[in-house]
Specification:
mainly beta; 4-stranded antiparallel β-sheet
Length: 128
């Protein structure tokens, strides 16, 4: 399995960006995909996650309190891609963003070690 993250860039406060994470390989029909970020000098933190259980045709999402109401995670199963729409960006959102995939889990975990596959980072810079 490979994950390809893209969409990062530089924006001003209040701006928007959409990150994409495209998966290839044997990802399975059910999965949990999450976004984590790491700012310079800080620990990696959970941002948002999405679960998809194909047998139930059920999807759930979870968001860190710091991004709730501003960020939205969505999926396009036909494209094997998960998106992170980021609105009302703040300077504190500046970080390297990584997508991560759990092909065995059904519950969104905020613990990075639960994820088996990771994409390369895509840098988001928000200036004031």
């Amino acid at each position: 399995v490979q994950l390809q993250a893209s969409g990062g860039g530089s924006v001003q406060t209040g701006g928007s960006l959409r990150l994409s994470c495209a998966a290839s390989g044997r990802t399975g029909s059910s999965y949990v995909m999450a976004w984590f970020r790491q700012a310079p000098g800080k620990e990696r933190e959970f941002v948002a996650g999405l679960s998809w259980i194909s047998s139930w045709r059920s999807s759930m999402t979870d968001y860190a309190d710091s991004v709730k109401g501003r960020f939205s995670v969505s999926r396009d199963n036909a494209k094997s891609t998960v998106y992170l729409q980021m609105n009302s960006l703040k300077p504190e959102d500046t970080a390297d963003y990584h997508c991560a995939l759990d092909t065995a889990g059904r519950v969104i975990s905020r613990i990075a070690d639960r994820y088996h596959y990771w994409g390369q980072g895509t840098l988001v810079t928000v200036s004031s």
